[in-house]
Prior knowledge:
Structural class: mainly beta
CATH architecture of the largest domain: Beta Barrel
Strand content: 35-45%
Strand order of the largest sheet: 3-4-5-2-1-6
Helix content: under 10%
Number of helices: 1
Distance between the termini: 28 Å
Largest sheet: 6 strands, antiparallel
Number of domains: 2
Radius of gyration: 19 Å
CATH class of the largest domain: Mainly Beta
Order of helices and strands: EEEEEHEEEEEEE
Shape: elongated
Amino acid sequence: MKRFLEAGRLNSPRGLKGELRFECWCDSIEFLSGVKYLYLSPDGTRPLEVKSFRETVGTVIFAGYEDRNSAASLTGRTVYFDREDIPLPEGVFYNDDLIGLSVTEEATGKVIGVLKRIEEGMASNIYFVEGEKNYVIPAVDEFIVRANPQTGIIVRLIDGLEA
């Protein structure tokens, strides 16, 4: 499991005091509200100390980048958070923990492939499974029987899910 996960992308400055527009890739900026550091690299190096988040407008200010010009130097960068900074409730996990797991069809018990990526759809997440055949599976109870990093992914297939 990766320790440092993508939090989002830093966009253009907003105002004069180092505020950066923040495209959050988590459920919400509120999810990150207790995080003291975001990191500029996926290995947790190059920490940025979070001075404040403004959830209502989707912005962040970092200590040491409190003017428009220094904040602008961070524009376009992806930032990461440390999973250890955000304890999850029992039975809850990150989507990243599912990537790379084998996917088994419920009816046959046959492994149909590996989960390669998860994309956010309009109504639900979408699982992209690659194997002998490729599948695009909506992450809803009708098709996903179980998805858990410890026990794997079990799906219920119907015609039309092949990519």
